Model the fold of this input.
Amino acid sequence: MAGHGSSTKLALLGGTPVRDKAWPQWPARGAEEERALIAALRDGDWGGFPLPNERAAAFAAAFAERHDCEHALCVANGTVSLEVALQAMGVEPGAEVIVPAYTFEATASAALFAGCVPVFADIDPETWCLDVESAAALVTERTQAIVPVHLAMTVADLDAIGSLAGKHGLAVLEDCAHAHGARWRGRGVGSWGDAGSFSFQTSKLMTAGEGGIVTTSDDAILDRLHALVNCGRQRPEAAQHAAVVGHNYRLTDLQAAILEVQLARLDHQHDTRAANARRLQAAIEDIDGLTNLRIDDRVTTQAIYQFVFRFDGDAFAGIDRDVFVAALEAEGVPADGRFYESLPVSELLRPDPTRYPTWSAALAAAPAADCPNAERAAYRESVWLPHQFLLGTAAEVDDIVAAVLKVQHSAGDLAGLEGVEVDRLRQARSAR
Ligand SMILES: *Cc1c(COP(=O)(O)O)cnc(C)c1O
Done:
């Protein structure tokens, strides 16, 4: 284990860090990506037009099959995928769309882009995915859709969400931006709702730098998706003419070439991450003040976009989460604390008529729930570790654990530190 023999003086206070080695790089890439990209480059057929182009069509078919869906359509990114999926599902402008309070902004902003009103439900205190009871209490006659997010390393309760949606006739859009390849009761995410949305942005489990995809098994949704992402042009096989003013949200075939290779790597990477995650979870179970997220037994294939655990400062001399994360980073484990905000109280999505005249009126008029679980997660408890930390060996995991234990051992030395002082110490370290 690295760090043995080093003193217990925290790196944030000038001591020797537990780890100074680089972490496994992301995106993982190799000769296969190079070959695929060069082949696409040489044949000169680079665009997303005609839609779908050959490589994007082949990739989408493989991606749909891997997620137990009939169809998939590649799009420019994982934000517009949510926007067009809502529209293609028939969710109307002005409709209320229930989203979890604890997620990336795009889950909510995509509803705004589609002319809808995002309504924030709290998260489950143990899984940090959408709390279905909180969502149920927010349903009104204007509610048309619900957008569960499969957060970080788990899957939202798709059974309970399916029953709630069935009861009220709501459309379900799964935000699978973190969950490529995950399965719930043996079936792919993105196949449980009316549609699923995935992102291929740089940090995600499969990437072409940017990109997104919508999965569905509904032909009518696919027809409308085609028109929405291809400037209103009809899908050649479309049963009905979808008269829409569409964007150009197409993905290039250069990106599709890389994504075909990334899909082939996915399952092996899942296995590596899962094995390392089990080791890390077991260590966390034994550390006072840290708690693992609860992973439902119905998650039969786990996708780990970020390894997330819960922090309780009482077992760390009362320091707050942000100080803990700064100390971990100084030890060579660059974790993130405030990875996401609680959106209803975030600066971005709090109603503010001076910034967003139309959206603010909508946000202010929407039914609101208190979201204490989302706030506790966002501002006090969450610690996020990027998935590539788990693409190495057990030694990488042991470094994470060693760094956490070292910070715990000497947390008293950080007690009472204010944010400004932590920033100053961070800067002093990086200047050394
Ligand atoms: C990344 C992400 C998105 C948006 O994807 P982009 O490709 O970055 O636009 C949407 N939802 C969640 C939960 C995400 O993490």
Remarks:
- The CA atoms of residues 73 and 214 lie 5 Å apart.
- The pocket of pyridoxal-5'-phosphate is lined by residues 77-79, 103-104, 106-107, 149, 175, 177-178, 199, 201, 212 (CB under 6 Å).
- The chain has a mean pLDDT of 94.
- Residues 253-285 form the longest helix (33 residues).
